[in-house]
Amino acid sequence: MQGTVDGFSYGLVTPLVAYLMACLGGALGLRCTTRSMLVAQSWRPGWLALGSAAIGSGIWTMHFIAMMGFTVRGAPIHYDKSMTFASLAVAIVMVGVGIFIVGYKGARGTALFTGGTITGLGIASMHYLGMAGMRLDGKLEYNTLTVGVSVAIAMGAATAALWAAGQIRGFLWSVGASLVMGLAVTGMHYTGMAALSVHLHGTGEPTAGDSPASLLAPMLIGPLAFLLLAGVVVMFDPLMVMGKPAVAPVEQKPGIPAHAHTAVQHNAHRTRFRSRRPVGHRGSRTPQNR
User: Fold this and answer.
1) Which long-range contacts (CB under 8 A, 24 or more apart) does 13-18 make?
2) What's the pLDDT tens digit per position in 139-197?
3) 18, 62 in Cβ contact below 8 A?
4) Cα angle for residues 89, 91, 94 (degrees, 5° grid)
5) Helix, coil or strand: residue 239
6) Dihedral of CA 66/68/73/77: which sign?
7) Phi, psi (rounded to 5 degrees) for 17
8) Burial of 224 (0-12, 13-18, 19+ CB in 10 A)
9) What does each C-alpha distance from 90 to 14, 65, 122 come to in angstroms?
10) N or C end: fewer C-beta atoms under 10 angstroms in the chain?
11) How far is CA 135 from the centre of its chain?
12) What is the pLDDT of residues 208-257, one digit of tens each?
């Protein structure tokens, strides 16, 4: 028996909140990726790891907030807790691999394509692994073509977002990129849900697992608390907002201190705008005849 699926049982509330969560995770993750390109090598892994966890937590939270509005008529839905949180780990790890590639190799060429592909596959893997953790009295079936479209959307969104993070053009640039990334990730989710059909068994047997309501508390307390903490780190780091190093790099030459090089540049800048009188207007120093 074909089940009647409703992905918007709470109207537009769950899609909008899910979109905001995807934007928040994307914004924090992209800013951390940008920040990693402005610091010394010793600090880079920490910023990249923070960005990976932020994006992974954001898209995972987005997915299960959206799933709160998903119902199948006549079939109560439960979730396997271990499978559900395994999807979070997969998202963070695979997104992290893609971000580390871009963070160390640069957001261009082969590195960008590889990093965006792995990150997009991580987003798609999180979605379908989370769906695999759903328990109901029926069987989930997917349309292969629509699934392929959803994976392509995830890969394209991840590649575009990582490219934007590599531009280092300031805070507003990253905000715009995160809005686009949030839209693409949310669109990927609902495209994947459009590929889903449910065939009910009709046995009426109770299904194992936890209800969506019982998963809401840890979902909000855990990943959202982390996103809040990451947001505080971003907010109190001035270089994250400026999007550029605080001090411009100077040329290092043997025997010339950095402050001396800066003073030379400053004097050269002042000399460039100094007015000069023609040589013929200079006063004569020759003694006059008496």
Assistant:
1) 13/69, 14/65, 14/66, 14/68, 14/69, 15/66, 15/69, 15/186, 15/190, 17/65, 18/62, 18/63, 18/65, 18/66, 18/186, 18/189
2) 899 999 999 999 999 999 889 888 877 776 666 777 788 888 888 899 999 999 999 99
3) yes
4) 100
5) helix
6) positive
7) -65, -40
8) middle
9) 23, 18, 7
10) C
11) 30
12) 555 566 665 666 677 777 777 777 766 666 555 444 444 444 444 444 44
Pick the closest to residue 193 from 4, 3, 7 (CA basis): 7
Residues ≥6 apart with Cβ < 8 Å to 162: 33, 98, 99, 102, 107, 112, 115, 116, 119
Distance in angstroms (rounded) separating the CA atoms of residues 34 and 26: 12
Tally of CB atoms within 10 A around 172: 9
One-letter amino acid identity for 55?
I
Locate 178 and state its tokens.
């995160």
Residue 223 C-alpha from the chain's centroid: 14
